[in-house]
Amino acid sequence: MLSADSSVYLATHFRSKQDALLKKREIDRQTVSRNIINFEDAEKVVGYLNMFQPDCDFMAGLAHAHAEAVLKAYELEGQPLTQKTIDAEIMPQVEKLLAESSGGVIAREKGRMTSRRVRTRTTGGVTSAKLGSLTRHLAKHVNETRKAIRNGVTLHMLEMKKKVPPDQRRAAVQPAGEYTYHPEVERVSRHLFMEGNFRQAVLDAFIHVIATVKQRTGLKFEGDDLMNRSFCPDKTTPPVQFNPLQTSEEKDEQRGIWFLFKGLVQMRNYKAHLVTTFDDPHRAHEYLALASLLLRLLDTATIQKAPQTP
User: Fold this and answer.
1) Which of 103, 119, 187, 224 has minimal CB crowding within 10 Å?
2) Rounded to 5 degrees, what angle do the CA atoms 49, 55, 56 make?
């Protein structure tokens, strides 16, 4: 059992992550729907299940945040993590969060469908089929998230028991302090990192950053060309702006961030085309932190999306 101070730490840590995830979900909803207000119109563009990807990401992020908060609270107290702790304290709350989140999504969608049927005077055959597909989709996502979290905390427990020297570790090395990766990096790379597959974890994170730039800008370019057209402030107004670009100092900052994205493209190319041994968890953490930083910068940037060609 945790002490009162550690319990307060756990709750505070979790609430801070929850607030960040809620803000990100709203941004992601606008991005996925492409700022189309009407649900049905946006659904025609991106597909029905894709409309709920921000909710899936939020559910997974919330469950991972709770597990991480418990781990940090036990580390703060110096208590060893046990299988009993995982089964009695971590996983029940994880499952409760996932069940409540997925149930909330289903309830809201049922309400939206009912309102639309009343408004349009249509039958419920098509909507029932859609709701069934959403229920199955969420159930699969919940199950995958539950397994990933159990595997992650179990690996953490076993690694702490082994007390393997840092230069020999192949599993997760937790960063010091309060730092956590961007939820998207958590989603695409955490399980690989926990398995010790550091090269693929970093490569997938870099690929996801590049794909996010392309998706949010709507530009039909690749690699270095994509980054130049997205961020370059020279003699043009770029579609992605990290500040007002009114002064030379602001343009210098824009260029610095632009070069970071360009550098990530080159590192992605190197890791994708050359098979090398990569067994340094600390360096892998730093690469994932870089990917997280760039995604967070994108979250706060002003983005003018390119018009879509019919």
Assistant:
1) 119
2) 75
**DSSP string covering 63-119:** HHHHHHHHHHHHHHHTPPP-HHHIIIIIHHHHHHHHHHHHHHHHHHHHHHHHHHHHH
Query: CA 238 to CA 235: how far, in whole Å?
Result: 9
The number of folded domains in the chain is: 2
pLDDT digits (tens, 9 = 90+) for 183-242: 999 999 999 998 888 899 999 999 999 999 999 999 999 999 999 999 999 988 999 999
Three-state DSSP at 303 gives strand
- Boundary (domain end) residue, out of 163, 194, 229: 163
Same domain for 118 and 230? no
Amino acid occupying residue 25: R
Select the more confidently predicted residue: 124 or 220: 220
Which alpha helices (H) appear in 78-222, and where do they start and end? 83-85, 91-120, 125-162, 183-194, 198-217
CB neighbour class for 176 (10 Å; exposed up to 12, middle 13-18, buried from 19): exposed
Sign of the C-alpha dihedral computed for residues 228, 230, 231 and 236 taken in this order: positive
H-type alpha helices, 218-305: 223-231, 248-273, 281-300
Same domain, yes or no, for 142 and 208?
A: no
Asked whether the whole model's pTM tops 0.70, one would answer no
As a dihedral over the C-alpha atoms of residue 56, residue 60, residue 66, residue 68, rounded to 10 degrees, the angle is -150
